[in-house]
Amino acid sequence: MEVRARAPGKIILAGEHAVVHGSTAVAASIDLYTYVSLGFPTPSDNDDTIKLHLKDVDLEFSWSVGRIKEVLPDMGSHTASSPSSCSLETIKAISALVEEQNIPEAKIGLASGVSTFLWLYTSIHGYKPAKAVVTSELPLGSGLATRDGKCFGESELELVNKWAFEGEKIFHGKPSGIDNTVSTYGNMIKFRSGELTRIKTNMPLKMLITNTKVGRNTKALVDSISSELASIIESPVSDDLAITEKEEKLEELMEMNQGLLQCMGVSHASIETVLRTTLKYKLSSKLTGAGGGGCVLTLLPNLLSGTVVEKVIEELESSGFQCLIAGIGGGGMEISFSGST
C-alpha cells in the first residue's frame, strides 16, 4: 500500500512582527507544495526498517524497528485519533536516534525536521515498517510549511492540523499555529492573540517570491494594515477594473507595512536590493516572515505584462536570488491512496 499527500507552503502577507504584541497577522497558502509518499512493505519483502528519503538534499535515513523499540519502548501504545505532545524525555531519545545517522555538518539544520518525522510517524503508526519519500517545490529553509488526490473531510483535516501543530512544537517550542493551519486548510487566515480565523479570498492574487538565500510604537498602525488587507481580499470583485482598484490598495498597504518593518530594523541589504529592483518596474514588495534575509513578496498585478515579469526575474536572478511565482490562497492538504491494505 502507498499513501501520497501534498501540502502547500505559506507566506505572511502582513503583521509578522506585530503579531507577537497582540496585533493581527494575515497568512496565506501558496500553490507551491511539499509532497510525501509513504510506502509499506509486504511480509515477503522482509524489510523491518523505517526509512526517510529527502530527495531534494539527497539524504536517506534508516532505523531498524528493533532499535526504535529499544530507544522508544512506549511509542506503540499511542492512539492516532488523540494527538499528544512530545515529552522532553522523548525528544532527547529521538535526538539520539537522529544523531546516529551522522547528518553532514552542512545539513545539520535538517535534524529537527528528521526528529519531527520520526516522532510523528511512530506516534501514529507505531513500529510499522515503511519508507517515506519527501520532495518540495519550496526553497529549503526559506520560511515559506497528491496529484489528483481527494481532499479530507473537515473532521479529518482537524485531526491532521492537531498532529501538525504537535510537530511544530518540536521545531519552534511555542508555535503560533499559523504554519500548520494554513498548510492544512489552505486559503488564508487571520491570527490575533491566539485566535485563528479562516478567511476566503475573492480575487485572483499572484506574487513573485524572491528568496534572498540569506539565513535569517507602531503596533496600532500595523494592526490596521493587516485588518484592512484581509477586508480587501475577502470582498467580492465584479470585473478587471475592480480587481485593479483592489490591487492598487494592496500595493499601498504592502509599502506601508514594509516601511514599518524597515523602521523596526528587521530588513537586510539583500532585501533592500530586491526592493530597489522591483521598484524600478513600479512593483510593490515587502519582506515576509522574520526578516534579516529570507524571502520578499512582490505583488504581480493581474494585467501586468509577462515581459515585465521576465525582466524583473532576470535582474533578480543575476544578483544571485532565487525567484518563484505563486498563486495565493489556494487549496490545502490533499491525500490519495493506492494499492491494497
Mean pLDDT across the residues is 85
The oligomeric state of the chains shown is single chain
The description of the largest β-sheet is:
9 strands, mixed
Poorly predicted residue ranges: 146-150, 217-222
Gyration radius, rounded: 21 Å
Q: How many individual helices? A: 9
Beta-strand segment tally:
13
Shape: elongated
The percent range for strand residues is 15-25%
Gap between N and C termini? 6 Å
Helix content: 25-40%
Secondary-structure content class: alpha+beta
What is the N-to-C succession of helices and strands? EEEEHHHEEHHEEEHHHEEHEE
Keywords: ATP-binding, Cytoplasm, Kinase, Lipid biosynthesis, Lipid metabolism, Magnesium, Nucleotide-binding, Steroid biosynthesis, Steroid metabolism, Sterol biosynthesis, Sterol metabolism, Transferase
Domain GHMP kinase C-terminal: 248-301
Pfam family, one: GHMP_kinases_C
Catalytic activity: (R)-mevalonate + ATP = (R)-5-phosphomevalonate + ADP + H(+)
Structure description:
The protein is an alpha+beta fold and 341 residues long. 37% of the residues lie in helices and 25% in strands. The chain is built from 9 helices and 13 strands. Strands 1, 2, 3, 4, 5, 6, 7, 8 and 13 form a 9-stranded mixed sheet that branches. A 4-stranded antiparallel sheet has the order 10-11-9-12, with helices on both faces. The radius of gyration is 21 Å and the shape is elongated. The model is unreliable at 146-150 and 217-222 (pLDDT under 50). Belongs to the GHMP kinase family. Mevalonate kinase subfamily. Its EC number is 2.7.1.36. One of its GO terms (molecular function) is mevalonate kinase activity.
